[in-house]
Amino acid sequence: MTAENRSADQTSTNLGILVGYDGSELAARALEYGAAEATRRKAPLTVVAAYTVPAMIYPNIASMPEENEEEAALRAVEKRLGEAAGLLRDHAGKVSYRADQGDAAGVLRDLSAHARTVVVGARGRGGFMGRILGSVSTALPAHSHCPTIVVPDHRTEPDGARVVVAVDGSDAGRLAMFTAAEVANSRSAALDIVSVLPAGDEWLYWYPELELSAEVSGRRKKQLETALEAEVAAVAQQFPDLPVSAEVPIGDPVEELLEATKTAQLTVLGTRGRGAVRSALLGSVSRGVLHHADGPVMVVPS
User: Fold this and answer.
1) In what order do the strands lie in the sheet with 115-121?
2) Tell me: the pLDDT tens digits for 244-277?
3) Strand 162-166 versus strand 16-20 pairing type
4) Whole-number percent of the chain with pLDDT over 90
5) Of 161, 211, 196, whose CA–CA distance to 269 is shortest?
6) How far is CA 36 from CA 41, 62, 93, 130, in A?
7) How many CB atoms lie within 10 A of CB 279?
8) Cα–Cα–Cα angle for 232, 281, 177, rounded to 5 degrees
9) Which of 66, 71, 127, 181 is least surrounded by CB atoms within 10 angstroms?
10) Do 44 and 34 form a contact (C-beta atoms < 8 A)?
């Protein structure tokens, strides 16, 4: 990994599929996933490793290290990128590598403005991830300029024939739906559009004065199914060869979508949806699914 190779793509505006790599086992899985995504979508692949240089205070000249801290950090991250290049030795498409100084989440957020999709692992060494859901995979989906795919910590991934997308009638949900349709089309996979109708007891908790019955729930379910028929038609018009279906399950949205992540090859969500809670940077449903998903999850920014 030479300085020339490292800097060749620094000013590119077409980073294609951008993968955050920190040398961890899960980052290697994200790298493999990103390479496959780049191949499917005929896009370039960019691998980025971030590094920071701590502010050091030395009491005297004798205590100063012989090697410059920044040069040492850069050399370490370039070694890491060399390891990534080894993992990608069989990738036939264009690959660029870059070492960027700064906080990993911030680096990926800025670069996402020039990428089609960002891929990260759910956890890592702390350079890219760290808690139940790592710091980067928690912060990035809410701030990214392009869709983010978070690869979970599982040795086997769902190999189902469908891509699942959650919609709720919001603009964010519709944007997620068409993004999911594009991804499903590139994978020759079916698209399943899901709109979860919360169970009656969830509504009664907040609005005890309501009189909910099976008849009311059935009527609302029918309304949602009718609305989804129009969405299916809209997707079919834009992607005529894509198999599209729709369903309206009744239950807790997070639990229903988590169940979908067990069998779908990808589950797609918007960052926000309807309601005050979902008006946060990353909605409660998206956040809940990300934290406990069994399969890869894509979050599409509003």
Assistant:
1) 95-101, 45-51, 16-20, 115-121, 148-151, 297-300, 266-270, 162-166, 190-194, 244-247
2) 999 999 888 899 999 999 999 999 999 865 543 3
3) unpaired
4) 51
5) 196
6) 9, 50, 10, 25
7) 10
8) 10
9) 66
10) no
Place of tokens 């069994």: 294
Across-strand partners of 121? Answer: 151
Please provide residue 281's backbone torsions phi and psi, each rounded to the nearest 5 degrees: -55, -45
- C-alpha closest to that of 31 among 21, 40, 22, 41: 21
Question: What band does 63 get if pLDDT is binned at 50, 70 and 90?
Answer: low
pLDDT at position 168 is 87
How, if at all, do strands 297-300 and 148-151 pair? antiparallel
Residue 192 is predicted with a pLDDT of: 97
Nearest to 165 by CA among 265, 77, 82, 42: 265
How far is Cα 227 from Cα 234, in angstroms, rounded to an integer?
A: 11
102, 43 Cβ separation under 8 angstroms: no
Write down the pTM of the prediction: 0.82
H or E, element range at 70: helix 69-87
For the stretch 20-29, pLDDT in tens is 999 988 899 9
Q: Provide the residue type at 101 as one letter.
A: Q
Q: List domains and CATH numbers for the chain.
A: 3-151 (3.40.50.620), 162-300 (3.40.50.620)
Tell me the pLDDT band of 41, cut-offs 50, 70 and 90.
very high
Strand residues in the chain grouped as ranges (E): 16-20, 45-51, 95-101, 115-121, 148-151, 162-166, 190-194, 244-247, 266-270, 297-300
Number of other CB atoms surrounding residue 233 within 10 Å: 10
